[in-house]
């Protein structure tokens, strides 16, 4: 019995240890971003679609290789007068592209650029999902910090209310002060309750975003004393003009428009193809007659005319020789398509003008974003200063209370104001983190790369400016 009991105790201890290890899982910013990317169904679908596009593009190499076709036919003729015939034909045909003015290569290059653009957009989508996870993470940290501040303030207010109640019973304070203190406590509890509800819903949504049933322990904290060293505005402007995702996408679009215009400009060039065939024929098996032929086809195609010319020569063993020449001409096959080149030229000019406009706007926005981060950091410093002064004021108010210069209700109101100052510090620190990350996204930088990359870009611009 004792052995069984000991075994059960060991078993339950083992389960408890496993459960503790499972619940002891922690989560950092990087891990949250990775989990969010892995759990995104839209991103999985986009990845699968991109893989299919790449596979189709690889099979497009087939256009450079010969086209092979096999044909089999049997023609039976029964005649009332004459000899019946039972002709059987087996042939192999080969068609090889020799020259088409580079249109096939340009078409494949445009497809490849579209795939690269899709890959770039996919990276941006993954980055946005990761950033949304980090933003939700920071929001939860901020809400938790504010909740702890409010809970601590509630404990202080309850203690002051208890003392105030005793003073009212001793006739040292008015009952109306006690009633006002109860209102302040009710407001504080209501704020805590509302914040807890919002925090619970936010944590649930965050867990769903990460693909988890329960939210692990969050190891990151909001550091209200953390300052940020921003790059110079000129460095940020240089980085934005080089790396901004919107500009990169417009550059891809310009290259695609240029390739499309070049493709349409080369449509007048002829297409040259070689064609060959080999066949077996006869009235019964084994087939005893065979033939072969070799030819060339030239096609000119434009909106105003289309001309196909072909010539071939062959040999039907044992004695027959064959030759054929054919030509077909079609006037005005598609006159409306003649405007495609003009449309492509206009689209390219519009894209270039759009690029210049975005380039100027992004330069100004980068400078503004740096200034916004500096203002957010200044706001954090001012909030800390206000909190420090408020703490000193609370200490002075406690002295004044002991001297009978203020009531305890006034002290409680001062404590409530100090709570708001402490919350403002947390909110300012969170706003600084968000502004910093927005600037990093604008410059296409990873979290934490803002300072180093900005200073490097600024150092590179110094020799250029001196040369100018």
Verbal overview:
This protein is of the alpha+beta class and 468 residues long. It has helices at 2-23, 29-39, 41-59, 103-169, 175-210, 233-243, 245-265, 340-402, 408-442, 450-467, and strands at 26-27, 67-77, 85-99, 217-218, 271-282, 289-301, 305-316, 320-331. It is elongated and about 140 Å long. The protein starts with a helix and ends with a helix. Mean pLDDT is 85; it is low at 1-23 and 462-468. Among the domains are: 27-65 and 114-221, Outer membrane efflux proteins (OEP); 223-267 and 336-461, Outer membrane efflux proteins (OEP). Strand 7 and strand 8 form a beta hairpin. The protein has ten helices and eight strands. Helix 7 runs antiparallel to helix 8 and helix 8 (340-402) runs antiparallel to helix 9 (408-442). The strands form two sheets. The protein has a six-stranded antiparallel sheet with strand order 2-3-5-6-7-8, with no helix packed on it. Helix content is 65%, strand content 17%.
């Amino acid at each position: 019995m004792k052995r069984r009991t000991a075994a059960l105790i060991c078993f339950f201890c083992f389960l408890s240890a496993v459960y503790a290890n499972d619940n002891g899982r922690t989560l950092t910013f990087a891990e949250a971003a990775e989990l969010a990317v892995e759990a995104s169904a839209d991103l999985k679908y986009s990845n699968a679609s991109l893989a299919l596009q790449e596979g189709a593009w690889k099979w497009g190499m087939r256009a450079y290789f010969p086209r092979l076709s096999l044909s089999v036919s049997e023609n039976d003729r029964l005649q009332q007068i004459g000899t019946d015939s039972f002709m059987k034909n087996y042939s192999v045909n080969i068609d090889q592209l020799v020259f088409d003015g580079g249109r096939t290569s340009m078409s494949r290059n445009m497809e490849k650029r579209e795939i690269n653009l899709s890959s770039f957009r996919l990276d941006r989508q993954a980055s946005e999902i990761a950033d949304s996870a980090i933003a939700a993470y920071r929001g939860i940290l901020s809400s938790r910090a504010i909740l702890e501040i409010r809970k601590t303030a509630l404990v202080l207010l309850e203690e002051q209310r208890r003392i105030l109640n005793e003073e009212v019973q001793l006739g040292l304070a008015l009952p109306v002060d006690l009633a006002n203190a109860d209102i302040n406590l009710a407001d504080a509890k209501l704020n805590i309750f509302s914040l807890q509800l919002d925090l619970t819903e936010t944590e649930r949504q965050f867990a769903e975003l990460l693909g988890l049933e329960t939210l692990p322990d969050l190891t990151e904290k909001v550091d209200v004393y953390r300052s940020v060293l921003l790059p110079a505005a000129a460095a940020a402007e240089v980085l934005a003009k080089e790396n901004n995702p919107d500009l990169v996408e417009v550059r891809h679009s310009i290259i695609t428009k240029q390739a499309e215009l070049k493709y349409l400009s080369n449509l007048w060039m002829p297409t040259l193809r070689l064609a060959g065939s080999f066949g077996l024929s006869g009235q019964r098996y084994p087939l005893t007659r065979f033939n072969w032929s070799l030819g060339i086809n030239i096609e000119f195609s434009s909106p105003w005319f289309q001309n196909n010319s072909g010539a071939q020569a062959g040999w039907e063993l044992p004695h027959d020789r064959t030759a054929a020449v054919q030509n077909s001409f079609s006037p005005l096959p598609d006159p409306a398509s003649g405007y495609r080149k003009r449309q492509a030229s206009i689209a390219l000019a519009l894209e270039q003008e759009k690029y210049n406009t975005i380039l100027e706007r992004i330069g100004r926005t980068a400078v503004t974003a740096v200034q916004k981060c500096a203002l957010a950091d200044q706001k954090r410093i001012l909030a800390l200063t206000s909190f420090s002064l408020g703490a000193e004021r609370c200490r002075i108010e406690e002295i004044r209370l002991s001297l009978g210069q203020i009531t305890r209700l006034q002290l409680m109101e001062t404590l409530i104001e100090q709570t708001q100052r402490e919350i403002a510090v947390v909110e300012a620190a969170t706003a600084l983190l968000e502004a910093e990350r927005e600037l990093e996204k604008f410059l296409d930088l990873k979290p934490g790369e803002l300072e180093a990359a900005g200073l490097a870009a600024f150092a590179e611009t110094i020799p250029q400016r001196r040369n100018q």
